[in-house]
Inverse folding.
C-alpha cells in the first residue's frame, strides 16, 4: 500500500559534489549504512536552538568593562542589569584568549552555561548577524536600500528569520541546515530522518533535496484506534487516502501523509525509550503539565537526545535538528520575561550537554543558538526594539570553547558599530557560523560556494571562524 | 451580469467559498434566490448575540476573577461560526481575524476573553454596512461601519491590540528615561500586515483589466516605521480601571485611553509615503492625539498598496491561494474604490471575490477553475470543523459550546495564532514540491506537516464518533441519515454535496461506499456507525481537504 519510502526523496536532482574525503564510497548507497559494523560510530549532529522574536544582545552578554557598562547603563536605565549582581554571582567571563580591555558577563539566568565556558565547551560568537558582505557603517548608510549589498527587510521578523536560517532571500528558500543535510542523505538508512524538527515548521531544515521531518517532542503522532465499532481507519485507508491525484494540492497533502505513516514506525522502534534521569537532568524531564518555555525546550532536547542515542538502531550518521522557543520579541516586559527565557536556554543547553556526556555522544553533537536579529541598545521604557547583530552560543564536546569569536562591538550610540538606537552592525556573518559547522559535519571545502554563496565575499582566512576544534587542527 | 440560477453542485460550491459551512437548506436557498439576491440577504442579516454579552451570560463565574482563561471567547467564536445564520459575515470576520491578527493564546493579558470579545465584536460591527445607510460625509471619509477604514480605526484603538502589539505604555522620546524611544512594534505591523505590505504594487491596465504587479521596491523604510511609531504614543490603561483594583468590566470594551502628557504632538515627516502630519497647534492634548491618529490612518488607507495587499489575503481566505493577476486586479480595484463603489467598502470587496467572472464559464455556470489542477486551496482546519458542524447539525449539550482545548488536535484555533503573522503566511509554499516548482503558494500548508495530518485524523474521528469538548459537549446529529444507510453509495453521494461541494470523484465515492458496505447495519447503533464511518472517510480524504 505504501510505496517505498525512498521514493519520497527527490533523487532526481543531481547529487552534491562530493570528494573522496567527504563521502567514503562504502557509504554511497542507501541502506548499506546499517551494514557498517556497530563499532564504527562516525556520527555527527547539529542542534539549532532558535530563539524566535529577536534575542536581545545587551541583556544576554552584558558589557562589563567600565566604559562599556557605563554606556549600557545610560541607554538602558530601567532595563539594565546591575553590575554588582554580575560581580556577586561570578558571571564575568574569563576567556582563554583575552579581549583587549573589554569584558562581558553572562546574564544571571545564563549561569548554567558558566561552567561550560570554564570547561572550554562553550564558545561565544560576538556581534553576528545577517550579512551579504562585510559592511562599514558608511557603506551601510549608503547602500542600505540595495538588496545586493545589504540584506533586505532588516527589521522584519519573518524576512530576517528566513534570512538567518537560509543566508539569503530569493532563490535560497532552502535553509542552510537542510543544505548541509543534502550532503549526507545517502549516509542515512532513513534519509527522511536526516533533518528533524522538534520545534515546528521553519525553512531551516529544508534543503534542495532534504525535507524537514516534523516530530512533536512527545514522539511521532500516531493514528489512534478508531472510535467506531468495527471500522478502523487504518485498515480502511485505501485508495481514497493515499491514491494518486491530478490536483497539485491533493498530491502534496498525500505525500505528507504517506511520509508520516512510513517513518512513524522507524521512530517508534528506533528512538530509545531510555529517558534522562529526573534528578540529574531535571531541565530535560519537565512535568507533563508544565507549559513553561523551559519545559517546552527541555522536551524538544530530550527527544533529540533519545533519537541520537538510538542512532545505530535507525542507521543514522549525520543529522541536523531544529528546536525553537518563542517569546523573545520583548518590546515590553523585558526585565520580567527575558531572564526566564535565558534560564530556559541556559539550563536546557547545559543539561543536554551533560546528558550527551553521560550517553557518550557529547563530542559528536554541537548545539548552537540562532535568532532572526538582536535588539536595540536603548530601551523604550520597558523593552527594546528590533535590531540586527547579536551574540550567540555554540556548545559541545567538539567545540573550541572558553573564548570569544568575532569582534567585540563598541557599546553605545553613534559608535562605529551602531546603526541607530544601538542596533549593532554585525561584524561576523551567519554564513561564517554556518560554514564552520558545515565543515565540522564533513562538507568538503570544494562545496563551499554552492552551500553558502555569499561566503566568498568574506576573506578566506575568516570563513571558518575556528570554533570547532577538529577544523583547526590539521 | 445576472447569473442563471445555480444547480445543486454550483450552489454548494458557492457556499463552500462564501461561508464557514452550509446546510441543505442553504443550498436550496441559493438555488431559489440566485447568488446576488442570496448575498444581498446575507449582507443585511441580523447580528446575533454579541460575543461580549454571550460570554457574560454563559460564563458568569468569570465576571469577578483574574481569569486569563481565554476559551469562553474561542467557544463563542465556534458558536457563531457553526450556528450563525449570517454565514458570509462570519466567514468575513474569521478572515479579518487572520489579517488584523491578535490573539488570546498566551494567557497573559487580564480578562483577555473580554478584550478579545470586544475586538471580535468590533470587527463584526464593521464588516458589512447591512441596513446602515452612511451619510454623505461618511461616504466621503469612508468612516462608516462596513468600511475597512473603520476596521483600521477599531484595531488601532483596541485595548487588546495595545497589549498584544505593545503600544500600550509607549511614550514620546524621553518619556521613561533620557534615551527611551517610542515602541515601534505596532507601527511596523500596521504597515506590513494590516495595510500596505512589504513590497510596492504597480497598477496597469492590460486588455481593459486592471493588473497590480508586485515589484521589488519596498513600500516603506525603517525610518517610516520609526516616524509612524511617534503617533502611537500616550496610550495606556488606567490602573484604577483594572478589574483587579476595583475597576468595572465595561472598561475592557472601550477604546484604549490617551494620556496626552506622553503623546508626541510634534510634526511627522513621512517623506512621500503619505501626507505629513503637522505639529499640533494646541500642544499635546487628547484631541490632538486623536486627530493625528486620524491623519495617519487616512494616509495609510489612501495608499493604493492597500487594495492589492488586502484583496490578495481575502481571496486566499475565501476562494483560492493563487488568484490570477486579473482576478486580483479586479478585486484590488474594488477595494481601492476604482470600480464604482466606495474605497474600502467590505461588502463590495466580498461580492467581487465571490462573483468574479473567472469563477464562471461563458454560460454563467459556476465551473471556472474546476479543471485547473492548481486552482483552489487547502481548507483551513477551522473551516473543516465548521463545515462538519453545519452540515450535521452540531449541538452543544450544555449550551456553553465547551470546545475548550479539544480543537488543539484540529490544528487551528480561532484567535489563537502563534503570532501576528497568523497561522500561515500568504506567500508560503511547501519546499521541494510541485507547487514550488510552478511558483504557486499554498498558505495552509504551512501548518500541515507529518504530525498535524495525523492529529487531524484523530480529531475528526473523535469529533464525529463520540463528540468533543468538555464532557463530549459537542456532538453531531445523524438521525436524519438513519434511513439512508441501506444504500451506501447514494448516502455518500449526498454527503459529497454537503461536505465537499460535490468534488469527490466517483472512484472515491465508490471506495468509501464499499468501505461502509462492509459494516453491519441491523441495530440503530450499527446504522449510526455506518453514517459516521462515511463522514470520517470523506473528511480525511485529500479530495475533501482541498476546496475547489
Amino acid at each position: 500500500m505504501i510505496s517505498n519510502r525512498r521514493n519520497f526523496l527527490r533523487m532526481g536532482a543531481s547529487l552534491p559534489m562530493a570528494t573522496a574525503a567527504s563521502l567514503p564510497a562504502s557509504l554511497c548507497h542507501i541502506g548499506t549504512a546499517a551494514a557498517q559494523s556497530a563499532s564504527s560510530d562516525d556520527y555527527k549532529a547539529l542542534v539549532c536552538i532558535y530563539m524566535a522574536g529577536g534575542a536581545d544582545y545587551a541583556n544576554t552578554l552584558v558589557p562589563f568593562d567600565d566604559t562599556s557598562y557605563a554606556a549600557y547603563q545610560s541607554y538602558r536605565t530601567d532595563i539594565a542589569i546591575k553590575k554588582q549582581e554580575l560581580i556577586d554571582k561570578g558571571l564575568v567571563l574569563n576567556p582563554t584568549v583575552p579581549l583587549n580591555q573589554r569584558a562581558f558577563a553572562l546574564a544571571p539566568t545564563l549561569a548554567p552555561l558558566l561552567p561550560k565556558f570554564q570547561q572550554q565547551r562553550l564558545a561565544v560568537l560576538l556581534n553576528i548577524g545577517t550579512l551579504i558582505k562585510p559592511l562599514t557603517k558608511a557603506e551601510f548608510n549608503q547602500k542600505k536600500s540595495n538588496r545586493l549589498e545589504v540584506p533586505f527587510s532588516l527589521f522584519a521578523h519573518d524576512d530576517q528569520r528566513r534570512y538567518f536560517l537560509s543566508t539569503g532571500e530569493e532563490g535560497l528558500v532552502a535553509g542552510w541546515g537542510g543544505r548541509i543535510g543534502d550532503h549526507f542523505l545517502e549516509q542515512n538508512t532513513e534519509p527522511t530522518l536526516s533533518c528533524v524538527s522538534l520545534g515546528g515548521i521553519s525553512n531551516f531544515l529544508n534543503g534542495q533535496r532534504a525535507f524537514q521531518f516534523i516530530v512533536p517532542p512527545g514522539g511521532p503522532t500516531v493514528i489512534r484506534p478508531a472510535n467506531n465499532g468495527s471500522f478502523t481507519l487504518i485498515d480502511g485507508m485505501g485508495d481514497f487516502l493515499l491514491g494518486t491525484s491530478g490536483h497539485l494540492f491533493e498530491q502534496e497533502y498525500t505525500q505528507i501523509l504517506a511520509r508520516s505513516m512510513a517513518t512513524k514506525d522507524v521512530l517508534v522502534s528506533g528512538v530509545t525509550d531510555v529517558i534522562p534521569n529526573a534528578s540529574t537532568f531535571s531541565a530535560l524531564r519537565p512535568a507533563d503539565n508544565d507549559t513553561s518555555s523551559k519545559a517546552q525546550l527541555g522536551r524538544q532536547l530530550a527527544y533529540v537526545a533519545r533519537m541520537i542515542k538510538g542512532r545505530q538502531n535507525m542507521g543514522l550518521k549525520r543529522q541536523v535538528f531544529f528546536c525553537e522557543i518563542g517569546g523573545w520579541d520583548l518590546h515590553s516586559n523585558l526585565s520580567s520575561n527575558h531572564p526566564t527565557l535565558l534560564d530556559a536556554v541556559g539550563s536546557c543547553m547545559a543539561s543536554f550537554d551533560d546528558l550527551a556526556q553521560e550517553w557518550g555522544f557529547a563530542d559528536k553533537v554541537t548545539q548552537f543558538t540562532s535568532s532572526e536579529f538582536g535588539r536595540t541598545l536603548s530601551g523604550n521604557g520597558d523593552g527594546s526594539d528590533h535590531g540586527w547583530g547579536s551574540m550567540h552560543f555554540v556548545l559541545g564536546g567538539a567545540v573550541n570553547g572558553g573564548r570569544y569569536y568575532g569582534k567585540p562591538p563598541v557599546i553605545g550610540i553613534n559608535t562605529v558599530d551602531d546603526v541607530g538606537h544601538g542596533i549593532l552592525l554585525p561584524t561576523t556573518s551567519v554564513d561564517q557560523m554556518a560554514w564552520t559547522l558545515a565543515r565540522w559535519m564533513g562538507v568538503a571545502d570544494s562545496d563551499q560556494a554552492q552551500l553558502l554563496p555569499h561566503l566568498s565575499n568574506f576573506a578566506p582566512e575568516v570563513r571558518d571562524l575556528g570554533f570547532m576544534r577538529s577544523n583547526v587542527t590539521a | 451580469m445576472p447569473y442563471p440560477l445555480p444547480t445543486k453542485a454550483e450552489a454548494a460550491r458557492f457556499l463552500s467559498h462564501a461561508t464557514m459551512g452550509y446546510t441543505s437548506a442553504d443550498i436550496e436557498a441559493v438555488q431559489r434566490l440566485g447568488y446576488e439576491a442570496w448575498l444581498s440577504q446575507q449582507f443585511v442579516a441580523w447580528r446575533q448575540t454579541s460575543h461580549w454579552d454571550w460570554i457574560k451570560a454563559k460564563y458568569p463565574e468569570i465576571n469577578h476573577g483574574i481569569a486569563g482563561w481565554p476559551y469562553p471567547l474561542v467557544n463563542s467564536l465556534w458558536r457563531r461560526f457553526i450556528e450563525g445564520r449570517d454565514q458570509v459575515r462570519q466567514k468575513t470576520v474569521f478572515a479579518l481575524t487572520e489579517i488584523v491578527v491578535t490573539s488570546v493564546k498566551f494567557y497573559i493579558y487580564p480578562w483577555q476573553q473580554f478584550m478579545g470579545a470586544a475586538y471580535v465584536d468590533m470587527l463584526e460591527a464593521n464588516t458589512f454596512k447591512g441596513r446602515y445607510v452612511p451619510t454623505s460625509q461618511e461616504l466621503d471619509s469612508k468612516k462608516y461601519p462596513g468600511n475597512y477604514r473603520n476596521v483600521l480605526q477599531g484595531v488601532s484603538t483596541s485595548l487588546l491590540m495595545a497589549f498584544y502589539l505593545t503600544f500600550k505604555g509607549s511614550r514620546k522620546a524621553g518619556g521613561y528615561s533620557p534615551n527611551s524611544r517610542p515602541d515601534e512594534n505596532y507601527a511596523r505591523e500596521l504597515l506590513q500586515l494590516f495595510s500596505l505590505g512589504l513590497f510596492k504594487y504597480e497598477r496597469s491596465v492590460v486588455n481593459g483589466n486592471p493588473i497590480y504587479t508586485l515589484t521589488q521596491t519596498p513600500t516603506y523604510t525603517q525610518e517610516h516605521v520609526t516616524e509612524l511609531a511617534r503617533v502611537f504614543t500616550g496610550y495606556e490603561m488606567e490602573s484604577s480601571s483594572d478589574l483587579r483594583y476595583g475597576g468595572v468590566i465595561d472598561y475592557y470594551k472601550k477604546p484604549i485611553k490617551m494620556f496626552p502628557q506622553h503623546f508626541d504632538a510634534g510634526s511627522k515627516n513621512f517623506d512621500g509615503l503619505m501626507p505629513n502630519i503637522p505639529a499640533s497647534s494646541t500642544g499635546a492634548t487628547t484631541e490632538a492625539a486623536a486627530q493625528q491618529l486620524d491623519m495617519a490612518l487616512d494616509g495609510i488607507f489612501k495608499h493604493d498598496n492597500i487594495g492589492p495587499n488586502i484583496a490578495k489575503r481575502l481571496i486566499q481566505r475565501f476562494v483560492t491561494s493563487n488568484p490570477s493577476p486579473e482576478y486580483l486586479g479586479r478585486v484590488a480595484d474594488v477595494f481601492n474604490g476604482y470600480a464604482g463603489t466606495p474605497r474600502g467598502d467590505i461588502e463590495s470587496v466580498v461580492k467581487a471575490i465571490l462573483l468574479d467572472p473567472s469563477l464562471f464559464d461563458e454560460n454563467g455556470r459556476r465551473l471556472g477553475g474546476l479543471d485547473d489542477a492548481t486552482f483552489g486551496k487547502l481548507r483551513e482546519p477551522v473551516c473543516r470543523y465548521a463545515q462538519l458542524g453545519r452540515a450535521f447539525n452540531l449541538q452543544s449539550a450544555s449550551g456553553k459550546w465547551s470546545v475548550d482545548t479539544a480543537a488543539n488536535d484540529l490544528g487551528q484555533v480561532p484567535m489563537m495564532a502563534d503570532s501576528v503573522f497568523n497561522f500561515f503566511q500568504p506567500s508560503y509554499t511547501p519546499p521541494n514540491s510541485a507547487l514550488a516548482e510552478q511558483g504557486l503558494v499554498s498558505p495552509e500548508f504551512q501548518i500541515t506537516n507529518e504530525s498535524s495530518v495525523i492529529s487531524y485524523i484523530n480529531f475528526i474521528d473523535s469529533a464525529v464518533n463520540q463528540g468533543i469538548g468538555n464532557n463530549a459537549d459537542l456532538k453531531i446529529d445523524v438521525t436524519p441519515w438513519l434511513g439512508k444507510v441501506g444504500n451506501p453509495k447514494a448516502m455518500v453521494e449526498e454527503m459529497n454535496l454537503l461536505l465537499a461541494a460535490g468534488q469527490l470523484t466517483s472512484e472515491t465515492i465508490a471506495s468509501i461506499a464499499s468501505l461502509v458496505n462492509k459494516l453491519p447495519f441491523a441495530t440503530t447503533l450499527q446504522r449510526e456507525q455506518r453514517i459516521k464511518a462515511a463522514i470520517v472517510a470523506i473528511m480525511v480524504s485529500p479530495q475533501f481537504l482541498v476546496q475547489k
Q: What stands out?
A: The longest helix of chain A spans residues 334-358. The longest strand of chain A covers residues 44-51.
